[in-house]
Design goal:
Layout (H helix, E strand, L loop, with lengths): L11 E11 L2 E3 L3 E4 L2 E2 L2 H8 L5 E12 L1 E6 L1 E2 L2 E2 L7 H11 L5 E9 L3 H7 L14 E2 L2 E4 L24 H8 L5 E6 L6 H10 L3 E4 L6 H9 L4 E2 L32 E4 L8 H10 L4 E3 L12 E5 L2 E6 L2 E4 L12 H12 L3 H7 L2 H6 L17 E4 L5 E6 L2 E5 L1
Parallel strand pairs: 1-5, 6-9, 9-10, 9-11, 11-12, 12-13, 13-14, 14-15, 15-16
Antiparallel strand pairs: 1-2, 1-3, 3-4, 5-20, 7-8, 17-18, 18-19, 20-21, 21-22
Helix pairs in contact: 8-9
Length: 404
Amino acid sequence: MPSNKSVSDAPISQFINCRILRDHCLQREDLWVRDGKILDPEKLFFDEHGYADKCVDCEGSIIAPGFIDVQINGGYGIDFSQACDDAGSGVSLVAKKILEHGVTSFCPTLVTSPPHVYHKVLPQVKVHDGGAHGAGVLGFHLEGPFISLEKKGAHPEQFLRTFSSGGFRDLMETYGGLDSVAMVTLAPELDGSQSVIRDLCQKGITVSLGHSVANMSQAEEAVQHGASFITHLFNAMLPFHHRDPGIVGLLTSDQVPAGRTVYYGMIADGIHTNPAALRIAHRAHPSGLVLVTDAITAMGLPPGRHTLGQQVIEIQGLHAYVAGTKTLSGSIATMDMCVRHFKHASGCSVEEALEAASLHPAQLLGLSHRKGNLDFGSDADLVLLDETLNVKATFISGEEVWRK
């Protein structure tokens, strides 16, 4: 029988023999969970006189908040940017598979596509919590089509759009609706973009700057209108220049409004960014770094030809190229790989590596009151890792959903 009937009939789990990531530090203490939330043990003991119904021996593991991937285009043969009748089942398959990589929440990402793709796919997938069925969906990340022709990367040129007929109206005509959208990546130098940024932010949608030739003042103006993220820093933007650092300059800009943080995504796969560039970004602005996989259909599959939206992608070793070119097009990295590579390449602490995949993306999306940390009252989305940051088990709402 539950031990705490005065407050709840739900059983209490106690995770023992672990080090938990709390207040930016690994602490050797137990973790208590009830009703899918993290409990304050002092209140449990002294106010309720409660105790654990179930004990989980973590065998010396690190317990970190579940990883959150805000940019993932698909994986395991699924391409989120395909206009199919069962987009939901594809998202569900990827959601299930990424549990083994410690991901408990994610933003399915659509690359630049023709309007009919958005109109078909977006209504099929709703924001929902994770569980044994897979990682939770936090909302779509729409990367394009309002991006720069010069920095389109792997995005198909024929589907790029501008804000030619009124800004937000162009956006709604293209996407069809924003009900399940968490983030939009756009180029802030496009005419009309600043009012679109403001309108999106007012609707609670995160705006990211990317695939852009914006100069620093254009980037700063976008941030002043509400933009708060940079899509895969260094990739698909003007390179840093000492007289005009461009979007990269936001990392140390003095024009960011007080109390605001500009976050930036890094694809820490050892391919997209030289380790020295990763170190420069991290040392300049450590609290803004968000690890993203930018994973594509081919994640989890053998080398060969696959798709990314309307493009054919060729996998050669660990590289993903637009077929017939040397244009990088997403990655085949998993989130736990990115965490390990980031720690190795940057020389950062274990705590910093883990927070870049959990706390920072939660803060970016305005979810840190319940996700991305192990504070009392937060969701008990957990990842158990060994000393070398290999995933041993994943829990959502305190329930085990994957174990090695």
